[in-house]
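> call design_seq(struct)
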């Protein structure tokens, strides 16, 4: 039997545990990229452009931190930029932003449907959205549809 304080029972094979932790590590690695492309898309929709200063303000980090992440996103093919210009999402960046926004929306609506207030659901959705599997997300959608939420 699995204890409330343990992720695995004593009979869990090390390979099973390792696979679970690998899944979480991968989610953590993509979390920043997902947050940034989603915010860039939001800023472009709201203001017509996304600038480093806007990202720094929205994330509460320094310009240097944003620039470092933008270099990574540029290298990974999600963002394009030129010195002293706004940031632009590539086709891959737009696709990732759309997927993230949709996943965030499903998680947020699911948490609200469970009875959480919108503020708590919004805060929790920020973390959960990066770690929810496609299978679980499908179950959330099914629950929302079944419950008219």
């Amino acid at each position: 039997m699995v204890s409330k304080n343990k992720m695995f029972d004593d009979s869990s094979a090390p390979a099973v545990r390792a696979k679970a932790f690998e899944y979480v590590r991968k989610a953590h690695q993509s979390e920043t990229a997902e947050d940034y492309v989603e915010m860039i898309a939001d800023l472009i929709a709201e203001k017509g452009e996304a600038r480093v200063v806007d990202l720094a303000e929205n994330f509460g980090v320094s310009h240097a931190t944003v620039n470092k992440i933008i270099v990574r996103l540029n290298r990974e093919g999600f963002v394009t930029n030129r010195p002293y210009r706004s940031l632009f999402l590539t086709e891959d960046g737009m696709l990732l932003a759309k997927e993230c926004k949709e996943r965030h929306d499903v998680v947020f609506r699911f948490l609200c449907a469970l009875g959480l207030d919108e503020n708590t659901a919004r805060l929790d959705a920020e973390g959960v959205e990066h770690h929810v599997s496609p299978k679980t997300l499908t179950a959330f959608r099914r629950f929302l549809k079944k419950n008219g939420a």
